[in-house]
Amino acid sequence: MREISDYDSAVNGLQVENSGSVTKIAATVDASISTVKLAVAAKADLLIVHHGLFWSARQPWTGKNYELLKLCVENDLAIYSSHLPLDLHPHFGNNAQLCAALELKNLKPFFESHGQKIGFKSQTKISRNELAKRFERAIGGKPKIISGGKEVCERIGVVTGGAGAELKQAAAEGVDTFITGEGPHWTFALAEELGINVFYGGHYATETFGVKALASHLSKKFKLPWEFLDYPTGL
Question: By the 8 A CB rule, do 18 and 78 touch?
């Protein structure tokens, strides 16, 4: 995972260690005091997350920071985080898993970030309405659609999370439909100017796929129970 570039604050890998034994795996999108409490209640001793603990300064270890650390230590809970490595993984990654849920085939790497392609694109023919229905089923909620392009989608790009601010980059990489989690208000007008369809499914909702896939894989490999801890942000 060290060969994959990421934001400095991502701190991929083991963020909190435990005594070394794992009997149950929990998975969730965001590491926070709330999801740590859910993991403790689920009697998990390994919590796999996409967004880890260290996006902003955690020191000093007082107040809520101390409460979080105390919960982990007293309940022997380890926390493992994987950000861009889990976005771009060709099988377990958020983007690969969402593409599978959308029934997109013949995937090619797409959308450069930190010196590597983190998403996927697919060349196909599908109506915008049908693609929207598939997306709604995949994320379990109604997406926001900006109908800036053609009614028939032919070159679809998928980048989960918060890639909406990079519509120009997506269009420059040749897609006519861009599926992501969230984007700024001004992207509505930009999508129309670029002639591109944009599907916003929510940052959280589009990034549940990777942690589920990774936890399920580890569960099968090591014959351990696992549980997804759903703690939606609505964003």
Answer: yes
Question: Angle at the Cα of 156 (from 152 to 158), degrees rounded to 5?
Answer: 145
Task: Name beta bridge partners: 157.
Answer: 121, 178
CATH C-level class of 8-82+208-228: alpha beta
What per-residue confidence (pLDDT) applies to 60?
92
3-state helix, strand, coil in the chain (%, to 5): 35, 25, 40
Superfamily of chain region 87-201: NIF3 (NGG1p interacting factor 3)-like (3.40.1390.30)
Q: Is the pLDDT of residue 2 over 90?
A: no
Q: What is the pTM of this model?
A: 0.95
Do 8-82+208-228 and 87-201 come out as alike in CATH topology?
yes
pLDDT digits (tens, 9 = 90+) for 133-161: 999 999 999 999 999 999 999 999 999 99
Closest CA to 159 of 234, 97, 219: 97
Rounded Cα distance between 24 and 78, Å, is 11
